[in-house]
Each structure stands twice: as C-alpha cells, then as structure tokens.
Design brief:
about 425 residues; alpha/beta; FAD/NAD(P)-binding domain; D-Amino Acid Oxidase, Chain A, domain 2; 2 domains; eight-stranded mixed sheet; seven-stranded mixed sheet; 17 strands; about 40% helix; globular; monooxygenase; FAD-bd; oxidoreductase
C-alpha cells in the first residue's frame, strides 16, 4: 500500500477502548474539532466497578470537557472521611472545610460518568463488538498510517491511534511497554442499597484490619459504594477461589470476609445486588517501565489504564484517565487548529509532548498508590510499624499527599 496516495476510508483518529479514558479523549478531541472513531470490544458501554471517587483534579477535567454539571447536580459532595485502625481508633479524619477544595470530592456511578460523556458524542462514534488483534504501521517521508487488524478479519486505517484499552492493552504492548504486574492485592466491590437509608451523612469510612482495607462511601441517601482490598500472594490461587464462582456463592464468601467489621459495612454488603459485585486482581505498571520506554511512537500513544495501571489507594485511576483525555485534546487540538487538518507527522511531534507531560505524573501516582497500600494493608503489624503508620503516616503524610496530587490542573482545551 502506498502511503500518501488515496486517503479514502482513512480515519483521522481511532481510539481503542470505550471506557472512561477512551470516551473522554473522544469528547476532548470533538471539542477542538477533531472527529474520532471509538472501537469497543464489548457490545455496550462497560459499567463494571460500580462507582468511582472523583477528586478535584477530575472535576477540572470534566469542566474542560463540558460535562461536570451533569454529575455534580445529582451527586452530593462528601463532607468528611475517616480511617479507623484495628483497635477501633480513628487515625485520620478530614473534612471538606479542612481540604479547602473549590471542587469537593464525590462518589459517582461509573455508568453515569460514561453516559454523561457518551451523550455528547455523535451517533455511530462508538463501534461496539470491535476487538483489536494487531497493529501495523506504514510510514514514509510524507505521511504515516496505522493499520488495525481486527479480530473479525477487517482492517481499519487511521492517521492517529490512541490506546485506551485498559490494563492488558494491545496498543501498550505494541509500544513496547511491559505487561503490568500483580500487586499481591485484590479487590471486591459492590453497590449497597438501603431502602430506609444508610445513615452515612455524606461521610466515607475506611477500616483497616490485619491485611484488609475495607471502605464505604455514599452516593446518595440510600445507595453506597463499598470495597474490600486484601492481600493475596498468589494470583493463581486467588483466581481459582474467586473467578469461577457465581455471584451468589461469591457473596457468601464476601460476607465471611467482613464478619468482623462494623455492622454498617455488613448491612451494606447484605443489601447488595449480586449482579453489581465485582472481583479484580490489582495490577500496576512498574514505574521504571514508564521511565525508560516509549509512551508514544510516531502516531501511536496510550492513555488511561493502558498507560498507568495503579492500585486504588489514592483513588486516582479514573481521575488521571480524565486528565489524560484533556491533555491529549489540548496538544492535538493546538496542532489541528493551526493546520486545520490532521497531519500525522505533526501529530507525532505533539504526542511526544503529551508523553513528556504525563510520564512523571504517572510514575509518581503509581509509586505513591503502591506505597500507601503497603502501609495500610500489610498484615500482622509489628508494634513499631503500626506506630509509624498511625502516628506519622496517617497524621502527616496521607492527607498531605492526597491534597497535593489532587490539586493538579490538566488545563483547558483550545477554543475552536
């Protein structure tokens, strides 16, 4: 095939993955006048995970995308958060007034985030049941194309390829990034519905207990998101125990795990529809992989979990995916508005700028998340380690770090 010849049937931008990162990036590009095609392997929008925590940095990104008002109008802000240790002692308490955030923290259903973004996109932007098999690129002095070989045998040609295809990203592998590794932690999540109200009063609670970190947070007066993060040294063993179970059997196992936690948590689990229950091994990318490998090659790059899979202790997975989207839209949009056309060789230059901007942000969040999890989850604490965790880590490091990372401003999209 001759590059630079007939460009009929060539997409300007293809985004692999219709999760938060993929849809947000598509909308960011649309805001600056660039049309993108989303390839989603599922047959509908994926809403797994139940709910996500959105900090100030996420709301900055959602405002840039023009959809923040859709979510902030239906989800109340959290007023305070507590962390309680094995002895029942509150080792961290932070109020919204102390945080001094212009954009308070909210817990939002993942499905609502996806729909708020998808509703802004033109019909047929998302092509469902489309699974990427492999990638090929063709380049000469004048132009560059990516050829996407799909599982159904079709080939899609594009001037720009952005991989938002999650932890096990085909695009990230093509770039040469190593596979994410198991953190020796897994997570169970669900949505509890209390018809008479849960009484959380817009407060989130985290409980620590011998290798377990469990938490609850309200979405509204009746619904609350809950999670269990626990240590497991063998992924194969954990998969054998969890993945083969049907939801009802898995629910019984969850109830056994939370038997010694506060009654409110137990009640929320008991009032959870098994269909909302999810289990996942927690993976993360080795930080030096991001340090020394390419995050973009020519017209190809990655965003979201494909770029920076991390453990959830900082609550930044979804937040940083939204950041990625706006930063990508900002760089590509600036290039597009100057030339009024997608020129792959020029886009390749701005993708390098995007990669440079996101590299150290991603590395720092992956590292901080993993270390925070180690402090909170390490079972059988020795006295000294427990003392350091409760009197130094939670009192001086925990809140300051969260305050620092959530102040990040991804910027605004250029005006069309």
């Amino acid at each position: 095939m001759e590059i630079g010849g007939d460009q009929e049937g060539v997409e300007d931008v293809v985004i692999v993955g219709g999760g938060i990162a993929g849809l947000a990036t598509t909308l960011a590009l649309r805001r600056v006048g660039v049309q993108a095609l989303v390839l989603e392997r599922s047959d509908q929008l994926r809403a797994s995970g139940g709910a996500i925590l959105l900090f100030s940095n996420a709301w900055v990104a959602l405002e840039a995308l023009g959809v923040a008002h859709k979510l902030s109008s239906i989800y109340p802000p959290l007023q305070s958060g507590y962390v309680t240790n094995e002895s029942g002692e509150v080792v961290s308490h932070r109020t919204s007034q102390e945080s001094n955030m212009k954009r308070p923290v909210r817990i939002v259903k993942r499905k609502d985030v996806l729909e708020a973004i998808a509703d802004e996109l033109p019909t047929n932007t998302i092509r469902f049941s489309s699974k990427l098999s492999s990638i090929e690129t063709r380049t000469n002095e004048a132009s560059s194309l990516a050829l996407l070989h799909m599982e159904d045998g079709s080939i899609i040609k594009t001037k720009v390829l952005i991989g938002c295809d999650g932890v096990h990203s085909v695009v990230a592998s093509w770039l040469g990034l190593s596979k994410p590794v198991y953190s020796s932690r897994s997570a169970l999540r669900g949505l509890g519905v209390m018809p008479q109200g849960h009484g959380l009063n817009n407060e989130s609670h985290i409980f620590l207990q011998d290798g377990y970190r469990v938490g609850v947070g309200p979405l509204n007066d009746r619904e609350a998101h809950w999670f269990i993060i626990y240590n497991c040294t063998s992924l194969e063993e954990d998969e054998e125990n969890m993945i083969v179970m049907d939801p009802k059997i898995l629910m019984k196992k969850v109830l056994q795990m939370v038997a010694n936690f506060p009654p409110l948590f137990l009640q929320l689990v008991q009032h959870t529809d098994p269909a909302t229950l999810t289990w996942a091994p927690l993976m993360f990318r080795i930080p030096w992989d991001l340090m020394f490998r390419n995050l973009s090659i020519g017209i190809v790059t990655v965003a979201g979990d494909a770029l920076h899979p991390m453990t959830p202790e900082l609550g930044q997975g979804g937040c940083t995916s939204l950041e990625d989207a706006v930063v990508l839209g900002r760089h590509i949009g600036t290039c597009f508005l100057k030339d009024k056309i997608i020129q792959p060789l020029e886009v390749a230059k701005v993708l390098k700028l995007y990669a440079k901007e996101r590299r150290f942000r991603s590395i720092s969040l992956i590292l901080a998340s993993y270390v925070f999890g180690w402090f909170q989850l390490e079972g059988s604490f020795q006295r000294l380690k427990s003392y350091v965790r409760d009197t130094i880590f939670f009192k001086y490091v925990y809140q300051r770090t969260i305050a620092h990372v959530t102040k990040y401003d991804c910027g605004k999209l250029p005006v069309v």
